[in-house]
Specification:
Layout: E1 3-7, E2 10-13, E3 18-25, E4 33-39, E5 45-51, E6 58-60, E7 68-73, E8 78-83, E9 92-99, E10 115-116, E11 120-125
Parallel strand pairs: 2-11
Antiparallel strand pairs: 1-3, 3-8, 4-5, 4-9, 5-6, 7-8, 9-10, 9-11
Length: 126
Amino acid sequence: QVQLVESGGGLVQAGGSLSLSCAASGRTISSYAMGWFRQAPGKERDFVAAITQTGGTTYYMDSVKGRFTISRDNAKNTVTLQMNSLNPQDTAVYYCAARSTVVPGTETKRAWYDHWGQGTQVTVSS
């Protein structure tokens, strides 16, 4: 079983950047597809970005394309979400997630992810 711990959240002004990190332990993440989700107060937990086991393919929600970049380092057992040009609508708790069953077309589906971190708060001020 893999355990995930997010870090790097905080308070940033609109237009600024943050880099979120997800550190895995217990198992190597090389066999997992990884994703980032976010949940704003009173809203559902939404897909943000995902990356395949080798890092060869990435997926993004439309509103973060061109601003966010997901990457992974399987040797270090980490996944990173680089967030640029942040705006107040990006304010949320961000969660790292891993899935062992990879079915094409389900990268953005929360239910397909088996393991979750505790989340890290990102707040963007206007």
